[in-house]
Amino acid sequence: MTAVVEDHALGRIVTDAPQYRSVHVALRYDPDGDPDAVSFAFPSGRDWTFPRELLETGLRGPVRRGDIEVWPCGRVQAVVEFHTPDGVAVVQFDSKVLIRFLSHTYAVAAPASAS
Questions:
Q1: Rounded distance, CA 24 to CA 8, Å?
Q2: What's the pLDDT tens digit per position in 55-85?
Q3: Nearest-CA neighbor of 56 among 115, 15, 109?
């Protein structure tokens, strides 16, 4: 049994309003459940699960797969778009928080891949 990684991030919901709204997001990785996926859990109860590789690639350049789009925003931020039939949620994160989360996921997954 491998440990589940759960980090927390403060995202900023991007809208056309002059001020942004903050949102607490739980970043999760369960290598026993799906070693190739990460989940972002929002306070509304909505969880988004998508390939870990999508998040990693999106920190270097724009990428979209299915309902998720990720791209760097300047030198220190990244944007994650979540598409639904009802609309799009655009959330901006500090890149270092997402990079740290990815590092934690690879540290946990490393022993499993060595066996």
A1: 7
A2: 999 999 999 999 999 999 999 999 999 999 9
A3: 109
Sheet holding 77-84, edge to edge: 47-51, 37-41, 21-29, 5-13, 87-94, 77-84, 68-73, 63-65
- Other residues' Cβ atoms within 10 Å of the Cβ of residue 57: 15
- Give strand pairing partners of 29: 5
Q: Write out the DSSP string of the chain.
A: -PPPEEEEEEEEE--SSSS-EEEEEEEEE-TTT-TTEEEEE-TTS-EEEEEHHHHHHHTTS-EEETTEEEEEETTTEEEEEEEETTEEEEEEEEHHHHHHHHHHHHHHHHHHHH-
Indicate whether this model's pTM tops 0.85.
yes
